[in-house]
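Budget justification, computational time. The allocation requested in the original proposal was used primarily to generate structure tokens for proteins on the priority list. As evidence of use, we reproduce two of the resulting records. The first is shown immediately below.
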Amino acid sequence: MQAHATVTRYTPRPDEAAAGMKPGWQVETRWTAYSLLNLDRPQGVGFVLGQKRDLAERLARAINAGVVFTRPEIKRDVNQKSYVSSEIKVRGRCLNADLKRLGF
């Protein structure tokens, strides 16, 4: 049970751009080990990191190493759609320090 992360360019939608959000990098996650279970929502948490590509790549490496998400479990929402819920060991405001603590 592990998430897989990819780093891609992020372009804000017009409403986000009007609110001041700028293009940057994002890390998208997908629960790959659960693909055989036919989850209704295999996508995981996404992170938008602004212009810091190196930070985005470090976060993706940590996710792919299996140290960011812990205790994953399959849950169902009010419409009975299945998804993966887990604890996250990093926080946006302290992301650099959290990644260093995790060895990345």
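The second record produced under the same allocation is shown here.
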Amino acid sequence: MTCRINHEHTPRISQTSERSACAPWPERPHLGFGRPPFAKSAGDSTVPKTTVLYVKEFNVPGKVGFWGLTRNQIDRLEKAAPRWYAILLLRNVAAGYVLTSAQVLHRIADGSFELSRDGDFKVNEALDLKPAQAFRSLDVLLDQIL
């Protein structure tokens, strides 16, 4: 598995157990425009698959997590058709929530992630996320998505 860097604010590549990983997290993982911050290629000996991590951060102490997933970015990810995840960091670069593309698209379709005038689908930690989607370390996150 390799990590292909697709953004100017991306981390160095480091070795984590038997797989390559994008670590440590960048200071500002995604600015809401341009290409997704990371693309990981993971595959068997026949067909490699690309996994894209769409990373957003929320770092306001004492507040419930709140993120905006950019509609244009989600549209680009869907058109490119890679396997992708939304990674919502919460006050800690190694903790937050992970949602599959199917979970994101389902919540958009049912109105749970409401589209605001600024073009972002708003995600509220208390209303829109479940504890089962949480991760507390980079290793747990990698285990969930790989």
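A brief technical remark on that second record: The longest strand covers residues 48-58.
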